[in-house]
Amino acid sequence: MGLSIGIVGLPNVGKSTLFNALSTAKAEAANYPFCTIEPNVGVVIVPDDRLAKIDTVIHAERILPTTFNFVDIAGLVRGASKGEGLGNQFLSHIREADAIVQVARCFEDPNVIHVENKVDPVADVATVTTELCLKDLETVTKRRDKALKMAKSNDPKEKLAAEICELLIKHLDDGKPARTAQVPETVEAQVVVRELQLLTIKPSFYIANIDEATIANPEANKHLLALQQLAAAEHTFVVPVCGALESQIAELDPSDRPEFLESAGLKEPGLNAVIRAGYKLLGLLTFFTAGKVEVRAWTTRIGAKAPQAAGVIHTDFEKGFIKAEVMWWEDLVKLGSEAKCRDAGKLAIEGKEYVMRDGDVVHFRFNV
Question: Would you say the C-alpha torsion 241, 244, 250, 256 has a positive or negative sign?
Fold first, then answer.
């Protein structure tokens, strides 16, 4: 689907370290600000143990998981909205992402420089959020001024745009992201907001980069607890991850990872939780296709109908959509074959209005 999540934060909070562990694309990681200038894009596999379970029935030639993109964006600093620290370049990279995850440093280490000379994740988040709000404030103010001029001709769209912009200006000026503003839910109002392409309208969550000492007992980390309080107030969430530990896990042979994770008191790499959180944030679900050639996971939006999901595989599937033969993945695994699902009444023939479920195993029928 080409969806991406931009990883942002102050310099030296662990963004590039986490990115390197997330993906096979290696960003440079070093102990000085602005080490990352151009954004690095990593294609990340979405962990899903349902694939292997489905394949115990299908015995396909290959198994292909679904993926999406993480983008490592260089560290923002105070004044980025005015161009400080190459801020304009960084902000444009954020604009291209579908969602944002802010990495905040929640560990003490005198050997790792902090750009603000203190460890305070809430303050770090506030600095980044303020810079994004200031950039959005500039965008909204320009649009408001244009709307006021054009509204003199009694253009209803421009009058509405001026009203929406005034509302957003007050909200952003308080340092609050646009996504928390009480914008009317009418189609016309939402079009105005969408056309602004605001940075802070994007869905967002936090990664707390914690130390190895508190990875098995996050409640002992006072910085993490403070960040969790902030996230709760914003109706979002925090994923605690130890960047240093994740880097070690990423370098291990897969066969050696379970023992290493057990020794660290973990059931799975922390980055698996980050990937699932990103998937959830973007409102995505996974469906499967299963045949002798491959068992494959695909990504579509929650609420997508069958033709839209078919279009993820190939545009011709959507154009020529006829029907979808749908099984629930657990039924397929439990009963042991498509034929047995059909005999048990667990295979449904669905039309264009069928809304996809996370976990559907589908055969699409089409004609172009």
Answer: negative
